[in-house]
Amino acid sequence: MLLQPQDDYEARALARVPQALRGKPRFEAFVRGLAAPFQEVDGALVALLTSRQLATATHAALDVLGRVVGAERLGLGDEVFRQRIRQRLALNRSSGEAERVLLLFRLLTPLALELREEFPAAFTLHVGGGALARVTEFAALLRQAKAAGVRALLEYQPAADADTFAFAGGGAGMGFAGLQEDVLGAREEVVAPPILGPAVEVENGNGSAAPTLGLVAGGAPVSGVYRVEVLDPAPDWTFMWFLDEDFQGSGYMYPGGSSGVPVPLDFAATGLPSGLVVTWPDGKPYLSGDSWQWTVKAPLAPTLALVASLAASLRVVVEVVSGTARTFRYSLNGGATWSAATGMGTGLVPLLSGGSPSGVAIQWAPSTGYAVGASWAWNAVRASPEGGRLSGAMAV
């Protein structure tokens, strides 16, 4: 609030004169002479204080106020610099709350502002309705206004509505309706074990039972031909293993003297696991040099396709029920509910939602090598009827 000047010192002084002395011209002139300097001092004090108020200060006085709050003039005129000081005051008082951030930026622009908070510690400030000038200044202030450890994103339009490309039809802009289409996301491998081929006997002098190759839970072995070979039979019972005929490591066939124990195939050079285990049955006697091999292939994966317009966005998950019988089940809501077992067929198999086509179909390779439990997922996103205006974004 500005200090109000008093311009009636002479009248107020004469009002204090005793009744007996009133009406005497010489005495009243004397009183007016005494009051006049106070009127001048009041005017000077009011002018001094007014020149130090943000709303009325100019030139050097405004520079002083800027230095107090930490704002630099940088060649700006008085009115623009005054606005910058107000912004700096709001920034100094801000502790990062959404309300404070919005208050600060309402001092910067008349454009529409929207602040969207995001989990766990982030927010987006959207400036719409027209072109945003001084984007760099906006971003710098936003960087200072946000709390430490909080990610802020500034969204803005690079031009006025009439000059901006927009997807929404019927409104201002250079775009048109109906451009957006349904979108199918990339395939995600939820559980996709590799395919382990059958054991192939390379050499077996005594006709002993073949060992079994298995997959470690969560293992991801590289594709190739894996071979195990008996190194020393009784009493040591050791073996060695190869990948594409390159020696990789060795181990005991019967650790602890027990048969039927899965033995990890670890790479001797690095100590890293291959993701596979071999189990030797009690099929003695083995001979040195007896060997078997398996071919490990990358997992087969089905293909999802958009075959019609989506009625809603979907989280599609498919899971192999039986590789040999070629059956699978599917979910359109991320695994919350599942269909009954369905045949893989030989072409596109429509995925139904409540008995009606969902807009997506899946195609499986003509193979019986799919592993039971193998699973894949996709996001199928329905087109937005509202569309959106092309905008710029700047992370701060």
Give short descriptive properties of this protein.
six-stranded antiparallel sheet; 396 residues; 32% strand; alpha+beta; 6 helices
Shape descriptor: elongated
Q: Uncertain segments of ≥5 residues (pLDDT<50)?
A: 168-172, 174-179
Number of strands: 22
Quickly give the structural class: alpha+beta
Q: Determine the fraction of residues in helical runs and give it as a percent range.
A: 10-25%
* pLDDT averaged residue by residue: 80
Quaternary state of this entry equals single chain
Order of helices and strands: HHHHHEEHEEEEEEEEEEEEEEEEEEEE
What can be said about the biggest beta sheet?
A: 6 strands, antiparallel
| Percentage of residues in strands | 25-35%
- The count of helical stretches stands at 6
Cα radius of gyration in angstroms: 41 Å
- What separation lies between the terminal Cα atoms? 37 Å
How would you describe what is shown here?
With 396 residues, this protein is an alpha+beta fold. 20% of the residues lie in helices and 32% in strands. The protein contains 6 helices and 22 strands. The strands form 5 sheets. Strands 4, 5, 16, 17, 18 and 21 form a 6-stranded antiparallel sheet that branches. Strands 6, 7, 9, 10, 11 and 14 form a 6-stranded antiparallel sheet that branches. Strands 1-2-3-22 form a 4-stranded mixed sheet, with helices on one face. The longest helix is centred in the first third of the chain and has 27 residues, at 25-51. It is elongated. The relative contact order is 0.11.
